[in-house]
């Protein structure tokens, strides 16, 4: 009982100290320029999006949705060319 209790206290403390990442080195935050370098934690190619470790939703067309609701427009110029080739 005592052991279980102190173990859960330790876990709580670690979670408070850590950012969103459960690993090291931590990913760039959602508000840094290299946010796309964060590790993907969920990948849904059939739906065209990935969820990154820092909470950013990264879409197939390189558009992004930040955790605070901010939208980043797609910024990969190759997309139009790829669509044209596929069609
Ligand atoms: Zn991370």
Description:
The chain is of the alpha+beta class. It has a domain at 27-86. The protein is built from 2 helices and 5 strands. The protein is globular, with a radius of gyration of 18 Å. The chain starts with a helix and ends with a helix. The model is unreliable at 9-19 (pLDDT under 50). Residues 1-26 are annotated as: Disordered. Pfam families: DUF5999 (PF19462). InterPro entries: DUF5999 (IPR046041). Residues 1-22 have a biased composition (Polar residues).
Topology (SSEs and partners):
Layout lengths: L1 H16 L22 E5 L4 E4 L4 E3 L4 E2 L5 E2 L5 H9 L1
Antiparallel strand pairs: 1-2, 2-3, 3-4, 4-5
This protein binds zinc ion.
Pfam families: DUF5999
InterPro entries: DUF5999
User: From the structure provided, what is the oligomeric state, counting identical versus distinct chains?
Assistant: single chain
Number of H/I helices: 2
> Which strand order do you get reading across the main beta sheet?
1-2-3-4-5
Counting DSSP E segments of at least 2 residues, the number of strands comes to 5
Shape: globular
Question: What do the pLDDT scores average to?
Answer: 78
Strand content: 15-25%
Query: In terms of per-residue confidence, which ranges show pLDDT below 50 for 5 or more consecutive residues?
Result: 9-19
The radius of gyration over CA amounts to: 18 Å
User: Could you say which small molecules are bound to this protein?
Assistant: zinc ion
* Structural class based on helices, strands and sheet pairing: alpha+beta
Percentage of residues in helical conformation: 25-40%
Q: What series of H and E elements makes up the topology?
A: HEEEEEH
